[in-house]
């Protein structure tokens, strides 16, 4: 669903410096790289590896990680369906602002609902900002076997409620720009595949 502005008598105040100006100043294009997938699929690990690759190429970028953001900006949100929607709405807005600043923003969030990811994509499209959905694909059995934070074990025991893949749904992307199956490729190859795509579409300079 769309979100209405609740405040009244507010007006957008345009500045003199545009995104194009900032991108020329930085010598790069801004974009949002939206990594989505099950817990344990490798989203955060890939974003860390990708950040290093981009940094070595002289690209200014920033990671927005699910757990990290929930310790600050979204610390008042839980994991109910309503809170999950608001969690992703906020990240969509923040990543759009980063892209407008000329940065490459990497978001590593489960973002389980297709409708919410569509809203994030449309938010960027309305602003003329590049949005790349990256589906970090991983069979549930593999993610559960990895279980780096012990969350699946707690979810199976009923200690954690509304856990994606166990008692809460994950709606896999049907038309993501990049699909990476982390049960088949290494972390390094996954990050390299994303860089290759960014080069192909002109977000990164060759």
Your description of this structure?
The protein is of the alpha/beta class. It has 8 helices and 5 strands. It has helices at 19-26, 43-56, 66-69, 81-100, 114-126, 140-146, 151-156, 187-200, and strands spanning 31-36, 61-65, 104-108, 131-137, 178-181. It has a 5-stranded parallel beta sheet, sandwiched between helices.
Write the layout of secondary structure elements.
Layout (H helix, E strand, L loop, with lengths): L18 H8 L4 E6 L6 H14 L4 E5 H4 L11 H20 L3 E5 L5 H13 L4 E7 L2 H7 L4 H6 L21 E4 L5 H14 L6
Helix pairs in contact: 2-8, 4-5
Structural class: alpha/beta
How can the largest sheet be summarized?
5 strands, parallel
Give the uncertain stretches in residue-range form.
Answer: none
Mean pLDDT: 92
Shape: globular
User: What's the helical proportion of residues?
Assistant: 40-55%
**Count the strands?**
5
Count of helical regions: 8
Oligomer: single chain
- Give helix and strand order, one letter per element, not per position: HEHEHHEHEHHEH
Tell me the β content. Answer: 5-15%
Write out the strand line-up for the largest beta sheet, numbering strands in chain order.
2-3-1-4-5
The end-to-end distance, rounded to whole angstroms, is 38 Å
As a whole number of angstroms, the C-alpha radius of gyration is: 17 Å
């Amino acid at each position: 669903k769309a979100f209405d502005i609740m405040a009244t008598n507010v007006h957008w105040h345009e500045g003199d410096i545009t995104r194009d100006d900032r991108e020329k100043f930085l010598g790069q294009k801004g974009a949002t790289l939206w990594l989505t997938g099950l817990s344990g699929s490798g989203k955060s690990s890939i974003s860390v590896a990708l950040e290093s690759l981009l940094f070595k190429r002289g690209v200014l970028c920033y990671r927005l990680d699910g757990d990290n953001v929930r310790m600050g900006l979204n610390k008042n949100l839980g994991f109910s369906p309503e809170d999950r929607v608001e969690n992703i709405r906020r990240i969509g807005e923040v990543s759009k602002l980063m892209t407008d600043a000329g940065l490459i923003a990497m978001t590593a969030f489960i973002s389980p609902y297709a409708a919410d990811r569509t809203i994030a994509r449309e938010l960027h499209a309305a602003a003329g900002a590049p949005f790349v959905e990256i589906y970090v694909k991983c069979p549930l059995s593999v993610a559960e076997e990895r279980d780096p934070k012990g969350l699946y074990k707690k979810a199976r025991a009923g200690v954690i409620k509304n856990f994606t893949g166990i008692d809460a749904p994950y709606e896999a992307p049907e038309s993501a720009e990049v699909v990476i199956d982390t049960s088949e490729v290494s972390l390094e190859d996954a990050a390299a595949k994303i860089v290759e795509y960014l080069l192909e579409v002109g977000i990164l300079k060759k």
